[in-house]
Amino acid sequence: MLSKRIIACLDVRDGQVVKGINFEGLRSAGDPAALSRRYNREGIDEVVILDVTATIEKRKAMARTIHAVAQEIFLPLCVGGGINDEAHADAAIEAGADKVSLNTAAIARPELLTALARRYGSQAVIVAIDAKREGGGFRIYVRSGRQATERDAVEWAREAADRGAGEILLTSIDRDGTKSGFDCELTAAVSEAVSIPVIASGGAGTFDHFVDVFTAGKADAALAASIFHYAEHAVADLKQHLHERGIPVRMGRWARTGGAEPSA
Amino acid sequence: MSIALIDYDAGNLTSVRKALTHLGARFETPAGPAALAGAGAVIVPGVGNFEVTAALDADWRRAIAGVLERGGLLLGICVGLQWLFEGSEEAPGVPGFGALPGRCRRIEHPDPAGPADGALFKVPHVGWNSLHRTRDSWVLDGVEEGDQVYFTHSYAAPVGPECIGSTTYGIEFASVVERERLVGMQFHPEKSGDVGLRLFRNVLDRMAA
């Protein structure tokens, strides 16, 4: 059965992870490569690097970070944050990203999605949508949530999929940072509207929030940052929690052999 | 023995290169079919539409067949696996390599109404799914029933005698195939964690043997 994916997000500035590092025991917590190595060991399914500086002069430093993380994991690696043209996407992919995520630039120039999908395949093109509940709908905001648009999340998700996007990374601005749970209504509305996978983001505070977004929210994957820093083994513990509640997830071999030591 | 990683503009090869390097493989990217003369093994990667394989023209096919005839090994990944078959309904006018019988078809749920539990059934098939071992093969050494690997595709190959591992998503399809020196993987071993690296290593070990 197809597993629900658990994705760790690393918000990176100047080569360091800047958000949600609360795990003091881990000396190298701020190092994206060290953190990726730990998540990989704990069973993360995918990693997203979000460049929160995203200025042209810092792109070279970002390429080094992408390369360093890519050397640690043999898992899908997505890079986003300020990608606004083909050259920038090329640089991220050349450095080791399997997928690039586009947000503001995709709304401004939707043809960029088509161009990148032609070049790299749809599986490499993710559209990031930041949405906020307004007037009974879900209004899209761009520029890191600072600027409102006239676009509706469900309608834009459909168009983005038609134009070649392979996945949607959907963040609830209302829930982001609140730890009060994913916006399951928003997630389900978008997920039902498109045939491509929807990654839910924003609001993860407890393991049960993931159960909710995979059932009521109909999400294909869920992304979080700080929740995974709280304790070592958080990723493994989350997967065990989901597994026990009947949500299909990729487990380590120990889970399928009744606790026996892994053989490889 | 050198491995030829074919770059025919079917997606980005950075991850495949990274995995090969990590596993200590010596490989090069041949400039054209003529450069395959000295290759001991061939890897045909590929993402996207089956139509991209049209770039593997008659000269490439002859050169790749030549590697097999000289006792070399051929590994097809993702669209590269599909290319080993006769063709795909995704691009009916583009013939496959035709070494394996059958054509690739679009993934669909057996019930047009979708899963009985009301869950969404999406195509493409994206994410981690499990391998069911259908037959013993050296390719699957160290791989256990139910191990998961990373997929991203909309079309899939039929389960035939050469199928050694199958995966079920709506339909059951061939996710790993092997016939002597011909190997195909529908998933991405380079993005499938330890299980993917093990599968890659099995093939590389055989390439070097």
Characterization of the model:
- The complex is a heterodimer of chains A (264) and B (209).
- By secondary structure, chain A is an alpha/beta fold.
- Chain A has a single domain (5-256), classed as TIM Barrel.
- In chain A, 36% of the residues lie in helices and 23% in strands.
- Chain A is built from ten helices and eleven strands.
- Chain A has helices at 32-42, 59-72, 86-95, 104-108, 111-120, 153-162, 184-193, 207-215, 234-244, 253-256; strands at residues 5-13, 16-17, 46-51, 77-80, 99-102, 125-134, 137-142, 147-152, 167-172, 198-201, 221-224.
- An eight-stranded parallel β-barrel of chain A has the order 1-3-4-5-6-9-10-11, surrounded by seven helices.
- In chain A, helix 1 packs parallel to helix 2 (59-72) and helix 2 packs parallel to helix 3.
- The longest helix of chain A has 14 residues, at 59-72.
- Chain A is globular.
- Residues 20-28 and 257-264 of chain A have low confidence and may be disordered.
- With 209 residues, chain B is an alpha/beta fold.
- Chain B has a single domain, classed as Rossmann fold, CATH 3.40.50.880.
- Chain B is 21% helix and 27% strand.
- Chain B is built from four helices and 13 strands.
- An eight-stranded mixed sheet of chain B has the order 2-1-3-4-13-12-11-8. Chain B has a three-stranded mixed sheet with strand order 5-6-10.
- In chain B, helix 2 (58-69) links the parallel strand 3 and strand 4.
- The mean pLDDT of chain B is 95.
- Chain A binds chain B through residues 1-5, 40, 45, 70-71, 74-76, 93-94, 96, 98, 120-124, 166-167, 191-192, 195-197, 218, 220-221, 250, 253, 256, 263-264, and chain B through 11-12, 14-15, 18-19, 22, 47-48, 119-120, 122-130, 142, 144, 146-148, 150, 152, 168-169, 190-194, 196-198.
